[in-house]
Amino acid sequence: MEKAKKGATIQSLQIGFSIVDLVAGQGRPLKFNDIYELTGITKSNLYKYINTLTQQGILYRDRETGAYTLGSKLVEYGMAAVNRENVSERILPFMQEINRTCKSTVLLISWTHDGPIVVRMINNNQGLNIGAQIGTYLPLLSASGKIFAAFLEESLVRDWKLRELGKLKEERRKALERELDVIRDKQISFADEPLVPTISSVSIPIFNFGKQLLGAVTVVGFSETVPQTEQDELSRYLLQMQREISRVFGYRNQTAE
């Protein structure tokens, strides 16, 4: 077999993937002429590309409308990629980098029926009591809890959220709902941790290709070292990391890139 040259590429594959990227990025079915106008590829060549992609299941053509969407084969590939490699293992190198940069404890939080739970921890200071360890369930008012309340599908969080809101006074509930709107917009959450005084946290959501919440990465430390606004330098760093981690799972933040 001929040894591949470093950096060598196959142009036809690049063009084919650019068509797939185009269909994926438009967020709506595209007809042949739509793709032609957006790509500028000659109609004769474009037909060959689209026909090949459709035959292989990469694209799907609706028989009634003639419009193209992503095909089932891509779903198979995506599921295989996720199932082969644990989400936690994919996120771990990013957590280690965040730990080195922030010099604070970093947690990976996942969802269960009983609420968000700590599933992984990189503890920068073994003597620091953050009030949580692996297996600890986190409350709604934690930075992590707010992430799940803001981004997870309502049907999944409803019972937990009702239980947690029942512990709060009406004024605090209203303030929290306003805060959740801000978190949805900024994609970052802050909290003075309710578990231990003098400890604060900041949390970022991790999304997949469908902007479904996979989990949250949370930085916990002494209040004076943990950022409390998105303008903070560490907050900007964490938002960049949020985009990089989510990109691993296929998420693309069009407004941020």
UniProtKB/TrEMBL annotation:
Q: Which UniProt keywords apply?
A: DNA-binding, Transcription, Transcription regulation
Under the heading InterPro entries, the entry gives: GAF-like_dom_sf (IPR029016), HTH_MetabolicPath_Reg (IPR050707), Tscrpt_reg_IclR_C (IPR014757), Tscrpt_reg_IclR_N (IPR005471), WH-like_DNA-bd_sf (IPR036388), WH_DNA-bd_sf (IPR036390)
Q: Where are the transmembrane segments?
A: none
Note the superkingdom of the native organism.
Bacteria
Where in the numbering of this chain does the IclR-ED domain appear? 73-251
Identify the Pfam families for this entry. Answer: HTH_IclR, IclR_C
rRNA-binding among the record's keywords?
A: no
**Protein name in the entry:** IclR family transcriptional regulator
